[in-house]
Write a structure and sequence with these properties.
This protein is an alpha+beta fold. Helices cover 44% and strands 19% of the residues. The chain is built from 13 helices and twelve strands. A hairpin with a 4-residue loop joins strand 10 (228-234) and strand 11 (239-244). Helix 5 (81-88) packs across helix 6 (137-145) and helix 8 crosses helix 9 (184-194).
Length: 308
């Protein structure tokens, strides 16, 4: 006895899959082969890809295109590389077709799809976004770091951080799980400069010699000034210096608190300066020049008139 089609379940599936459904899914839900043909003839189904149909109308959204490509590639397929980046919102899809990964070594070709055979893809590298299977945020960045240069990779990391998808600190900590993959070395180089936070003791050990080179007196450290704990304070100069662990785009709450701190110091007659940890550690020349220029504006003689 032939099983009756479960229309309610089919429609729920179609909604989850952005307007598309595969032939195998229709058969599994009780639609006969002849039933599929009749729906095609009546315009209720439209061929979207090999063994995949758009339901109701032939036009597909961007998400529908991606889902159709995945369904056409079979069970376990998922978006990868530039298509994954476009779904996550951290990059654009490259020309040449939708990029889909399959976790088998068997050859498979689909029109309009760039099929990448990735049998070694680990379960932790697989995720889902808006109902669409996709490589995880970390795996996507690792994959594309191998394809693009440092500037494009930094933009991706920047965007992922801005969208609160993954912070540089978390991304750096997960690179060990991807050891040996192309792109990891470039990411490690970028993130080692971008995601670290100096400890209090390290900060003092690096910053205080810079202060001495400029010719400023030794500041007080870890002082409470105007209701805030500051890193370095020169009461006799009216100068406060604070440092931040670098995050590409700090949250609105963090930005508001930083502004409040600086405004409180300025209103009290102090000059507030703020450096990132990265500047203190990797660009001491900039820190020296800024401190020297500020000291001169405060009428303080510094040891060297032209600091490198």
């Amino acid at each position: 006895m032939r099983r009756a089609a479960d229309s309610r379940a089919i429609w729920a599936l179609v909604r989850r899959q952005h307007g598309v459904v595969s032939r195998q899914q229709l058969l599994a839900h009780g639609v006969s082969r002849r039933g599929i043909e009749r729906r095609l003839e009546r315009g209720r189904l439209h061929r979207a890809a090999t063994g995949v149909y758009a339901v109701g109308r032939p036009e597909l959204t961007g998400h529908g295109r991606w889902m159709a490509a995945i369904l056409a590639c079979g069970s376990g397929a998922l978006l990868t590389h530039s298509s994954a980046a476009a779904l996550w919102g951290i990059g654009r899809e490259w020309g040449g077709g939708i990029e889909v990964a399959i976790r088998s070594a068997s050859p498979r070709k689909r029109s309009g799809v760039r099929v990448r055979r990735r049998p070694g893809l680990q379960p932790a590298a697989v995720d889902e976004r808006e109902g669409i299977p996709v490589t995880s945020m970390v795996q996507t960045i690792v994959d594309l770091a191998a394809r693009t240069g440092p500037r494009s990779t930094e933009r991706m990391v920047n965007e992922a951080d801005r969208l609160d998808l993954v912070t540089p600190v978390v991304l750096r900590s997960r690179l060990e799980d991807h050891r040996g993959e192309p792109g990891v070395d470039l990411l490690r180089t970028i993130l080692d400069r971008r995601s670290f936070r100096l400890t209090r003791s390290d900060l003092e050990q690096i910053f205080l010699p810079i202060v001495a080179e400029v010719g400023l007196p030794v500041p007080l450290t870890r002082q409470w000034v105007n209701g805030f704990e500051v890193d370095f304070h020169w009461p006799e100069l009216g100068l406060v210096v604070e440092t931040d662990g670098l995050r590409y785009h700090r949250t609105p709450a963090e930005q508001a608190r930083d502004r409040l701190r600086d405004q409180a110091h300025f209103a009290a007659g102090l000059v507030p300066l703020r450096f990132t940890d990265e500047q203190v550690r990797y660009d001491p020349g900039h820190v020296r020049r800024t401190l020297a220029s500020t000291a001169r504006r405060l009428g303080i003689a510094v040891a060297a008139p032209d600091l490198p």
